[in-house]
Amino acid sequence: MNDEQLLRYSRHLLLEEIDVVGQEKLLASHVLIIGAGGLGSAAAPYLAAAGVGKITLLDDDKVELTNLQRQIMHSQEKIGESKVGSGKVFLEGLNSTIEVNGIENKATPSILNALLPQINIVLDCTDNFATRQMINASCVQHKVPLVSGSALRFDGQISVFDSSQEKSPCYACVFSPEESPEEANCSSMGIFSPLVGIIGAMQAAQALQILIGFGEPLVGRMLLWNGRATQIDEIRLTRNAQCPVCSKKY
Predict the structure, then answer these.
(1) Cβ proximity of 41 and 35 under 8 Å
(2) How far is CA 93 from the centre of its chain?
(3) What is the rounded average pLDDT for all residues in the chain?
(4) Distance from C-alpha of 247 to C-alpha of 173, rounded to nearest angstrom
(5) pLDDT band at residue 184 under the 50/70/90 scheme
(6) Alpha carbons 89 and 99: distance in angstroms, whole number
(7) Labelling 189: which of 3, 151, 182, 201 has CA 20 to 30 A away?
(8) Domain region containing 149
(9) What is the rounded CA–CA span in Å between residue 151 and residue 194?
(10) Is the CA virtual torsion 82, 53, 212, 110 positive or negative?
(11) Is residue 249 one of the residues assigned to a domain?
């Protein structure tokens, strides 16, 4: 690190769990954030500020007025522009020393197959079941850790699925891809503004823990945040030996 970086990240360097070695791991890391909406708007700025060397945003949406109630990476002046373009400008304003890439497209297997060999960790900040299953399958195939978050109304959840660990479940172990749940989204159900900030910030924290290698990330555990009761519950997750995704041999 140069002198400017030593000063910028000095509060990290004071933490023995991070120190210079951990900060250098962050600077050498490449994080993929899929979804530049509410969750992505909370997670991405913390990763950029913390010094993740390369961040790629993947999203095909454009900024709308209804987004501004919770998607803090976007502003009124960006309405009508792509979310990845708006996000790139915001993140570069926070930290001009990192590299931020924006891909204005939906997540697809072909895009993920091209990206994931270069990626250290994926944050799933999307809002529909089919996309989450597709992202999970790609992460399992490439053995890339996945930090999965979701938020709706007053309730959020977060977990880490790390297929590089033999005992780690994947998303499909918990939510079977053979099911077809009725899709629910904030446009029809509503969402409490700070909820995405809480879950998205937790996703950033989990990503930093895994990239640096300290503490106990949420592998095999899921946190449930109840915004009405201001309560966090934890449930244990186990790997499904018959899982149609992670029991396959690639």
Answers:
(1) no
(2) 20
(3) 95
(4) 10
(5) low
(6) 11
(7) 201
(8) 3-236
(9) 10
(10) positive
(11) no
* Distance between CA atoms of residues 133 and 136, nearest Å: 5
| Sole residue written with tokens 């990330």 | 217
The answer to whether position 250 is within a domain reads no
Cα–Cα distance measured from residue 198 to residue 42, given in angstroms and rounded to the nearest whole number: 8
The pTM for the full model equals 0.95
Could you read off the pLDDT of 20-62 as tens digits, one per residue?
A: 999 999 999 999 999 999 999 999 999 999 999 999 999 999 9
Torsion sign across C-alpha atoms 102, 223, 127, 75: negative
In this structure, what token pair is assigned to residue 167? 């005992």
**Residue 175 covered by a domain:** yes
Q: What is each CA distance from 226 to 143, 187, 229, in whole angstroms? A: 31, 20, 6
Number of domains in the chain: 1
- DSSP string over 23-88: HHHHHT-EEEEE--SHHHHHHHHHHHHHT-SEEEEEE--B--GGGGGT-TT--GGGTTSBHHHHHH
Whether 197 is covered by a domain: the verdict is yes
Residue 78 maps to which CATH number? 3.40.50.720
